Amino acid sequence: MKLFLRLLFSSSLGFAFCTAAGAQIMLPKVLSSHMVVQRDRPVHVWGMATPSEQVSVTFRGETGATTAGELGRWSVYLKPGAAGGPFTMTVRGTDPTAGNGGQPQTITLDDVLVGDVWVASGQSNMGFELHDAATAAEDLPEAGIPDLRLLNVKQTASLFPQDDLPVVDDGWTVSSPETAQHFSAVAWYFAREIEQREHVPVGIINSSWGGTPVEAWTRIGAIGQDASLMPLFISWGKMIEDQPNVLLRLKIQQRAIDEAKEQGKPVPIFGWTPDLDSWGPGMLWNGMIAPLTPAAIRGAIWYQGESNASIERAPLYGRIFEDMIEDWRHEWGVGEFPFLFVQIANYNAGPGDGWPQLREQQLKTLELQNTGMAVTIDIGNPTNIHPTDKLDVGLRLARWARVLTYGEKLEDSGPLFREAEPEGPAIRAFFDHAKGLNAKGGAITGFEVAGTDGKWVTATATIDGETIVASSPDVAKPTQVRYGWSSSPQCNLFNGDALPASPFTSAE
């Protein structure tokens, strides 16, 4: 009951936004001074006002007008425009029945840029703040970039879609050493690279929450349309039923921690416990993504998967992830925008994990149009699930954007497995993005082969042009090959652009 009341309270934001607007014109937090408006798309401005109130929006010399509906909602679209700024946006509302005699109420948004807007989402490796990155000492002092704008969304779980969202600093901010330090490191490095390469203003929205599963970021209606995803609801139901035990366990753990501190003893360390509020299917879509969808964007970047990497959950990841991507595109209504994601890095997750299976699910997601995957199997930390190299992650994501979105001619990926063909006592693996195929540091590591019995053994692998030939004396006629098939594998296969090969398996 307490959980339900807590979620209900956190879900009341949209209702409060509606009722509070009855006395005056209001804008959602995603529209504020210092924001970036998506170039080359209609400019959408929306909000709340008194029902039947007349509302006008002026931007770049154009004025659009409308009348608030019976629930107080209003929406205005203005013509698309090229990158530029800064501009001023003025929103006026006039209510002839108001006590001020119908005098206009005015909201002025200053320092508005027109450029490209990207949404960054996922769990803790996306939320990982710039001040903790390995390169922070070098880059934070140089974070003052006038044409790079940041919007930090506060963590909010909700039972139903929200009209507005809570944000840090009350809205958009200009990138500076002060504002960037607590922003997503991956998102900031990605956005900085795009701003510097493309010479357009860039707005980046960080909407992430550590330790959360992909289904929490997916609209519950989209999940419900796919019968194969029903196990997700079963898992959620079991979590709810176990919540009294979880709360009691946390209370006992906290008591042990307090007693240890009082007695000057080492503080006991307990395992991580999921935050139930943030694990419910659709909860984070409702609270942290849905309020953003009325605003046009260029695309999205995503870093998530660790919370779905158990052996039970990993096999479902590809299906729910694809559903999420396609549904985000549908709900935003701006076409099949680029969706660029990070394949989870190397980490010793322990026995019985599903990390290699989840990476394979992520690899297969590239079959969706206009998607890109940054491989990070070479830059993780086997003993820390939060590796501090976020610069390379951001740059690898940006490579995909530079090719898919901005039309640059460069390599955007490391080698990606295409197919395998048995060749007597060996098996040959073919790759895309394999020009300049090489093994970093000497002999190739990480390959295994199996025959028809499905028993995997370590293989010797050699490079032959843009292919790999693998074999083992223990497998007379290999029929399957795989690479990097563990939670923290020893992988050293790269292409000529120093981009790592993705782990893979040829087994179905």
Question: How does this model look, in words?
Answer:
With 508 residues, the chain is of the alpha/beta class. It has a domain at 416-505. The chain has helices at residues 2-10, 13-20, 124-127, 136-139, 177-180, 185-198, 220-224, 230-262, 283-289, 314-332, 355-364, 391-404, and strands spanning 36-38, 43-48, 54-59, 62-67, 73-78, 84-94, 105-122, 145-152, 173-175, 202-208, 299-303, 339-342, 371-374, 416-423, 426-432, 438-439, 447-450, 457-458, 460-464, 467-471, 480-483, 493-494, 504-505. Residues 1-23 have low confidence and may be disordered.
Which terms summarize this structure?
508 residues; alpha/beta; eleven-stranded mixed sheet; four-stranded antiparallel sheet; 12 helices; 23 strands; 26% helix; globular; disordered N terminus
Helical content class: 25-40%
Radius of gyration, taken over Cα atoms and rounded to an integer in Å:
25 Å
Count of individual beta strands:
23
Whole-Å distance between the termini?
45 Å
Stretches with pLDDT under 50, minimum 5 residues? 1-23
Q: What fraction of the residues are assigned to beta strands by DSSP?
A: 25-35%
Query: What is the general shape?
Result: globular
Averaged pLDDT:
92
- Number of separate helices: 12
The biggest beta sheet reads: 11 strands, mixed
**What class, by secondary structure content?**
alpha/beta
